[in-house]
Amino acid sequence: MTTGTDTAIRSAATIVEEYFASPTQSLLAWVTPFAEEVAEARLAGPLTRTRLDALVEPHALTTLALRDAPVYGAGFIAAIDLLSDTHSHLAWWQGEDRRQLVLASQSVNKENIDYSALEWYRVPMETGRPHVAGPYVDYLCSDEYTITIAVPAEVDGERVGVAGLDLLVSAVERELIPRFAALGHEVTLTNDLGRVVVSTDPRCATGDSVRGGRLAELPRLTCRGVALDVIVDAI
Questions:
Q1: Residue 191 pLDDT more than 90?
Q2: Per-residue pLDDT tens for 18-77?
Q3: Who contacts 183 (Cβ-Cβ below 8 Å, separation ≥6)?
């Protein structure tokens, strides 16, 4: 790796680390007090969807109002069977109008989805740590390529669900591509499965696999605190 390439890849990693740190910290800032609110609500009686939604809404709206990240959606995904009146529940607000998402009105059985198998829910619930999932086409919420950041909520050692936010890849691309381009190298951001998130390389599209191809042979660096890698190539 040349000196120029080494500088570029480290700079690219720093850009990514700083970009995702702020929205992640915003979730961490409210997930602990929110978990305490959930604990108090459970002591007061059965925890229902309506009661949970009332607890989540102010935190979701605060997250949607973040100025340093293009947050499209935010909210909380309850642990399976946490609530007394449903098996699973997504308390979620999104869009420019910041309205609550009502899955049941969109498609049959969406309200009965078992979120436990989905990466953005499963990984933070299993590890107890924040996780960045994507890119994936979000058929639940936006029908667009999406990145989800999620952090677990715990009550006395019990994980009661995850707080999360969505970033549309199109918005992330608008913000990151100019910063990458200024480094003087082609920069490709991938997830830990080797799928392209965004890239300054016109030959790369979101969702492409870099395994076994040209990019697999190029310098790569894992970003600290986020399950994403940067790959650089000289222009």
A1: yes
A2: 999 999 999 999 999 999 999 999 999 999 999 999 999 999 999 999 998 999 999 999
A3: 8, 11, 12, 232
Which burial class, exposed, middle or buried, applies to 203 when counting CB atoms under 10 A from its CB (0-12, 13-18, 19+)? exposed
Total count of residues recorded for the chain: 235
Mean pLDDT of 96-104: 85
Query: Coil, strand, or helix at residue 85?
Result: coil
Exposure on the CB side of residue 141, measured as CA atoms within 13 A:
26
Q: For 124-149, what is the mean pLDDT?
A: 94
Q: Which domains does the chain have, with CATH numbers?
A: 16-168 (3.30.450.20), 171-234 (no CATH)
Comparing CA positions, the residue from 21, 162, 30, 168 lying closest to residue 92 is 162
CA angle 67, 72, 78 (to 5 degrees): 110
List the one residue out of 35, 195, 53 whose CA is nearest residue 128. 35
The answer to whether residues 167 and 146 touch, using CB atoms and an 8 Å cutoff, is yes
